[in-house]
Specification:
Shape: elongated
Number of helices: 14
Helix content: 40-55%
Strand order of the largest sheet: 2-1-3-4-5-11
Length: 337
Amino acid sequence: MVKITDVARRAGVSPSTVSYVLSGKRSISAATQRRVEESIRELGYRPHAGARALASSRSNVVALVMPLRSGIHVPVQMQFAASVVTTARTHDHDVLLLTQEEGEDGLRRVADSALVDALVVMDVQLHDARVPLLRSLGLPSVLIGFPAEAEGLTCIDLDFTATGEECVAHLARLGHRSVALLGSPPEVYVRGTGFARRTAAGFTAAAHRYGMSSAVLPCAPGAQAARETVDRLLREHPDLTGVVVHNEPALGPLLEAFRGAGLRVPEDLSVIALCPDEFAEGAAVPLTSVAIPAAEVGERSVELLMAKLDGREVPDATLLPPRLTERASTAPRTSTA
């Protein structure tokens, strides 16, 4: 293992000079700095993580706060997490994953421990109890999601309001007049989770603008819940011809329930899904969809965090526009529908 003394000997300087070059705590002449950096590259020296932390007063660790609450689709959440972890490593940072629902106490414990330099916070609710604490902590943070009052915070997410609007606009262009949003399990709405509430708001507002009749129904997990949701929807809206599904685990059971009710996709019912592209492409009838840009959001959240750690200015709000991909599950409304 290459040691700092090896680097110093090759560069013709003292070990303390190498430490100053690494930490930046003292001014070193450009010529000396170049010799040290060349020695580091030639020998392949990597500073010990603990030594780096002591030298810089930073841990080089980011906390990812990802509470695994009921009603949340874990596979999609893990796509966000994987992107955060891989991007953090490109910045020489590790990630501490916090999955328990600990709220303010968990954030305060991590902040007080000096274990991490910064926070990425997920599953943001409109009236999130963690927000006041995030504003008061000395740690930089980035939220994946937007609370109702986002002033003084750095937030990034898919623009879910625009997503709901874009789905309705697509169905309106195809001539559909009665549409529904089948959303996350009820507890997600009860908690006031931002992405669910904003999708529903955009969907409803756009349907009103286009003069369409609309409904928003949550859907609990399981085939039985899907059948009950579809039975209720068709009973209350017998003229329904277009559906948006914002609930990845329920997507298969809902499609099966519509088939069981005698509706063919897309001949009788056009379907749009909010889900990862690979899910939409792999369906029996490839689904028109708006992609969940988990990889991009995770990567950009870390880039924002690194900029804040470096003292650079970042935008308060980053909203990614929806990308709707048309596939076989949507079609013009037929005259007999």
